[in-house]
Amino acid sequence: MSGAGARDTTLRAMREDWDQRARENAEYYIHTGSKQWDEREFFRSGEINVANEIMTDMASICGGNRSPLDLDALEIGCGVGRMTKMMARIFRHVTAVDVSAEMIQRAKTNLSGLDNVNVVLGDGATLSALKDASYDFAFSFIVFQHIPTVEVVASYCREVYRVLRPGALFKFQLQGVQWNRDRPPDTWHGISFSEDDSRRLCQETGFIFERSDGVGSNFYWLWFRKPD
Ligand SMILES: C[S@@+](CC[C@H](N)C(=O)[O-])C[C@H]1O[C@@H](n2cnc3c(N)ncnc32)[C@H](O)[C@@H]1O
Fold first, then answer.
1. Domains (ranges, CATH) in the chain?
2. What's the CA-to-centroid distance between 120 and ligand 1, angstroms?
3. What's the angle, vertex CA 152, arms to CA 147 and CA 156, rounded to 5?
């Protein structure tokens, strides 16, 4: 199969598999902590993730003396809006992208009362609907760990670089456990990254490697900065 053919197959598989998961039990596949989430608890789990993974970086996200209420944020892989809902209370505007039409439909319902959120169905690898240099912060959690190829993750990094304003931060989480030695990656068990892999990804996409945390674990976090 050609490179383009293989990529199309991967994008189709991601959309179909996540659509199927959304129809079966969206909340469970988003956060496997419960098979029958209470709605309030489900969104509360998103608030906790925002507190732990975004609020702790706020000084670095804002830089200087800006307020988050002056910033436009981008979330890749928003699911049904579990974290988006809280992000919308913090930032001026949030654009939330997902590959699954079924997830996007549920996110639109969950976020319908919020006039500072834009929910976008993406193609699974690019941000083609979004304008250059129009975001102050980009974020992704428990999404890239499910992506089966380095090429798709690299495509997102190039695209995030394009849509971020100079000096902006991209914080995202990857799969750091090296389980691909035993099994081929799929749309649930995505591709693993070592520290060397992510440094290469950073260099190839033009970002500055600010820091990493959790190398070798399920929650391998990267902080990539777009140069000023
Ligand atoms: C485990 S859920 C996490 C959702 C959300 N980040 C949260 O924490 O609530 C993973 C989400 O990533 C989406 N996703 C998977 N592959 C994607 C891709 N290539 N591009 C965009 N979204 C993707 C899925 O459709 C799903 O909504």
1. 3-225 (3.40.50.150)
2. 12
3. 105
What's the pTM?
0.97
Distances (CA, A) of 216 to 151, 163, 182, 212: 20, 29, 15, 11
Q: Which amino acid is at 194?
A: S
The candidate with the shortest Cα–Cα distance to 219, out of 53, 79, 84, is 53
Alpha helices by DSSP H, listed for the chain, are 3-30, 39-53, 58-62, 84-90, 101-110, 150-163, 195-205
> pLDDT (tens digit, 9 = 90+) per residue, 61-98?
999 789 999 999 999 999 999 999 999 999 999 999 99
For the beta carbon of residue 200, count every other beta carbon within 10 angstroms: 14
Calpha distance 122→41 (Å, rounded): 28
- In the chain, count of helices (H) and strands (E)? 7, 7
- Which residues have CB under 6 Å of ligand 1? 14, 18, 30, 46, 76-79, 82-83, 98-100, 103, 122, 124, 141-143, 146-147, 152
Q: Which residues pair with 94 in a beta bridge?
A: 73, 117
Q: What share of the chain is helix, strand, coil (3-state, %, to 5)?
A: 45, 20, 35
For ligand 1, atom 18: residue with the closest CA: 124
Q: At what angle do helices 3-30 and 150-163 cross, to 10 degrees?
A: 80
Candidate from 16, 18, 23, 121 with most ligand 1 atoms within 8 A of CB, to mutate: 18
pLDDT at 1: 60
Please choose, from the candidates 47, 88, 97, the residue with its C-alpha nearest in 3D space to the C-alpha of residue 68.
88
